[in-house]
């Protein structure tokens, strides 16, 4: 046998030996998997395995403890920041997390379940982990009662300023009572440093909102996107993030071919004299009619798109003229609603679309589909592919969003991308994110959200339309809101009391406030019925109720003749009063502010915040009904002022003001 043969046979043997080992390991693995499935890992047969499993459990456990320690360390460093309110839920998660790890060292990743208590008798928060942990023990063949576990957890909770008292109740609930000292210290930061959220890691967030289309109607769907998107931006800005508010207007579609050619043919001197196209919708309809009926025109329109997209100066000029008309109309709406946006429409991405198409092509991602170039996300999930290039070589909405996501990640260095559109575009964004992951653009450290919302219905529960069946013009809608708000104010006789200027401010505050709030207070996933009558009611969770409630709270300090300066002084010399049951109840609602913000940050559903601000208003009424702040005698002279309560009322007003501000509502001093 030659040297080569010998070597070959040696490696042959090695290989078959390795193969045997693999087979053996596979068998063991299979056995193990089977055992795990049957939840009866019989390690007693194999002491080696048993050792490994124990070792593994210990390691995992140490890892959990370490992770929690790191989290609590980094948190306690920031939470010692005495200039901000703290998130109670988060603190409880941490201290109970640590206590549970110590109490149940034999369980890895034991569940830490902390909820708000729905009955003050049972404390303010509850830890409900013991029941679940008892079940886990049961599966492991150990019988431990939830109550025993709960007691053990309580023994292991290290003392914290937040916790006044812990109580084991019922089958094994742990009731947590928040301490007044903690409450007082937290609420006092409102006077020393203003209403501030707990610290968040600053992120670069790109929010795509509003995004109407040039020359087409800006409809209620765009209004929803504007309102919901604006609130999300306001929230994230308040949390200290760096937010880029992008208005991705549709300014580059094929409709421009027909619009421009129609403009050129109807107003040949458009380059020197501004064409009368202020009614752009009518102009759009005219050109669309020609486009549909006249084959020749259609051809010229298609050629027009090509000219525009290749940058022909005359076409660009015409395009700008048309865009400007729409732009001005949009701006009127944004100004009225006080929404700030950066316009960056589809046209911005023209060259970037060329680039991304080239990249996808080079990466071998594109498939030919009857002349179209398509790209799949996950082929197995039943969705259709993206059309990246049409058969005529043009790009699509899909292509433009591939460019937006790349631009926002690569150029804007976004840590978090948010797209606010109607729910009908859900699949589009689902596929977009899949593709972005597939090409390595979207990585795990970047958060992306499509924020969908349901359709707006009329009171007849059908699609929101005017009586004649046309889409409702937003400007008309806002005008009607103004008219109805004024009627409401007059009905209450406010026109007799307020100055014309005050009346106008109240009218605008109510009109725009109620339109925004009606939208925001509904779970955005559902459709909602647009009803001026409902939104202008002054009872229940409406903007009108809240704006009135807020003004009333603000006026309390005024009755005591306290101005801002005086309140600052009082805040230095007195403490917020928390003794009365209703005072403490109100205070605890205010203390929830950080966790309410956190909730909205997680699921981007603003209705949580609406429910919260409503809770503040109703709890305040309860407090005010049983606790006097300013006492006057029969002649109206002040006989007693309760400084601590005025401070509590003022703290309430400030938290409420912050919530209203995030919701885009503008309270006025008098209404
Ligand atoms: N990047 C985006 N796709 N943003 C949303 C655009 C919305 C689109 N213009 C429409 O009216 O439906």
Automatic annotation (TrEMBL):
Pfam family, one: Arg_tRNA_synt_N
SUPFAM superfamilies (UniProt xref): Anticodon-binding domain of a subclass of class I aminoacyl-tRNA synthetases, Arginyl-tRNA synthetase (ArgRS), N-terminal 'additional' domain, Nucleotidylyl transferase
Keywords: Aminoacyl-tRNA synthetase, ATP-binding, Coiled coil, Cytoplasm, Ligase, Nucleotide-binding, Protein biosynthesis
Reaction catalysis annotation: tRNA(Arg) + L-arginine + ATP = L-arginyl-tRNA(Arg) + AMP + diphosphate
Domain spans labelled Arginyl tRNA synthetase N-terminal: 90-178
Superkingdom assignment: Eukaryota
Coiled-coil annotated residue ranges, if any: 8-69
EC code(s) of this entry: 6.1.1.19
UniProt xrefs under InterPro entries: aa-tRNA-synth_I_CS, Arg-tRNA-ligase, Arg-tRNA-synth_N, Arg-tRNA-synth_N_sf, ArgRS_core, DALR_anticod-bd, Rossmann-like_a/b/a_fold, tRNAsynth_Ia_anticodon-bd
UniProt signal peptide: none
Keyword Magnesium in annotation: no
MF-aspect GO terms: arginine-tRNA ligase activity; ATP binding
DALR anticodon binding domain sequence ranges: 546-671
Compartments, as annotated in UniProt: Cytoplasm, Cytosol
Protein name per the record: Probable arginine--tRNA ligase, cytoplasmic
């Amino acid at each position: 046998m030659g040297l080569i043969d010998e070597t070959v046979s040696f490696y042959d043997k090695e290989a078959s030996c390795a193969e045997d080992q693999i087979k053996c390991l596979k068998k063991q693995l299979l056995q193990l998997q089977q055992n795990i499935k049957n939840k009866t890992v019989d390690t007693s047969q194999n002491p080696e395995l048993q050792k490994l499993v124990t070792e593994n459990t210990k390691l995992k456990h140490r890892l959990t403890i370490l992770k929690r320690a790191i989290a609590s360390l980094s948190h306690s460093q920031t939470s010692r920041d005495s200039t901000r309110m703290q998130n109670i839920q988060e603190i409880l998660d941490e201290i109970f997390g640590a206590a549970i790890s110590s109490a149940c060292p034999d369980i890895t990743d034991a569940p830490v379940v902390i909820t708000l208590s729905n009955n003050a008798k049972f404390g303010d928060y509850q830890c409900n982990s013991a029941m679940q942990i008892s079940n886990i023990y049961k599966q492991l063949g150990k019988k431990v009662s939830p109550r025993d576990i709960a007691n053990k957890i309580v023994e292991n909770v290290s003392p914290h300023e937040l916790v006044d008292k812990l109580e084991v109740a019922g089958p094994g609930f742990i009731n947590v009572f928040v301490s007044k000292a903690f409450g007082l210290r937290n609420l006092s930061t409102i006077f020393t440093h203003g209403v501030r959220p707990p610290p968040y890691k600053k992120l670069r967030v790109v929010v795509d909102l509003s995004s109407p289309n040039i020359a087409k109607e800006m409809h209620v769907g765009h209004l929803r996107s504007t309102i919901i998107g604006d609130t999300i931006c306001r929230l994230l800005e308040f949390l200290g993030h760096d937010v880029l508010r992008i208005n991705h207007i549709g300014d580059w579609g094929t409709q421009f071919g027909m619009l421009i050619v129609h403009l050129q043919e109807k107003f040949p001197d458009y380059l020197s004299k501004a064409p009368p196209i202020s009614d752009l919708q009518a102009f759009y309809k005219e050109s669309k009619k020609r486009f549909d009926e006249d084959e020749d025109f259609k051809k010229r329109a298609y050629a027009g798109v090509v000219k525009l997209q290749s940058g022909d100066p005359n076409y660009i000029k015409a395009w700008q003229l048309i865009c400007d008309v729409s732009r001005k109309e949009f701006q009127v709406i944004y100004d009225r609603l006080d929404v700030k946006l950066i316009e960056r429409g589809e046209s911005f991405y023209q060259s970037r679309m060329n680039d991304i198409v080239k990249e996808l092509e080079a990466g071998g991602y594109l498939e030919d589909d009857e002349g179209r170039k398509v790209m799949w996300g996950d082929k197995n999930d039943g969705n259709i592919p993206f059309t990246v290039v049409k058969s005529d070589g043009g790009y699509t909405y899909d292509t433009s969003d591939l460019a937006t996501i790349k631009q926002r990640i690569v150029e804007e260095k976004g840590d978090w991308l948010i797209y606010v559109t109607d729910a009908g575009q859900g699949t589009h964004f689902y596929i977009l994110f899949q593709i972005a992951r597939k090409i390595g653009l979207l990585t795990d450290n970047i958060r992306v959200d499509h924020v969908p919302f349901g359709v707006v219905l009329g009171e007849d529960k059908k699609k929101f339309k005017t009586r004649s069946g046309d889409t409702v013009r937003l400007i008309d809608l806002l005008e009607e809101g103004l008219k109805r708000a004024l009627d409401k104010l007059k009905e209450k006789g406010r026109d007799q009391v307020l100055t014309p200027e005050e009346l106008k401010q109240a009218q605008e505050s109510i009109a725009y406030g109620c339109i925004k709030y009606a939208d925001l207070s509904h779970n955005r996933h559902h459709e909602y019925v647009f009803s001026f009558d409902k939104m202008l009611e002054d009872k229940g969770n409406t903007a009108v109720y809240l704006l009135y409630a807020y003004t009333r709270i603000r006026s309390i300090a005024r009755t005591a003749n306290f101005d801002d300066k005086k309140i600052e002084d009082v805040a230095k010399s007195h403490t917020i009063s928390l003794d009365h049951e209703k005072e403490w109840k109100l205070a605890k609602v205010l203390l929830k502010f950080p966790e309410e913000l956190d909730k909205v940050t997680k699921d981007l559903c603003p209705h949580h915040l609406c429910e919260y601000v409503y809770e503040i208003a109703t709890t305040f009424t309860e407090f005010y009904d049983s606790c006097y702040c300013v006492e006057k005698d029969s002649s109206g002279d002040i006989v007693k002022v309760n400084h601590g309560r005025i401070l509590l009322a003022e703290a309430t007003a400030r938290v409420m003001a912050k919530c209203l501000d995030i919701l885009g509502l503008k309270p006025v001093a008098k209404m």
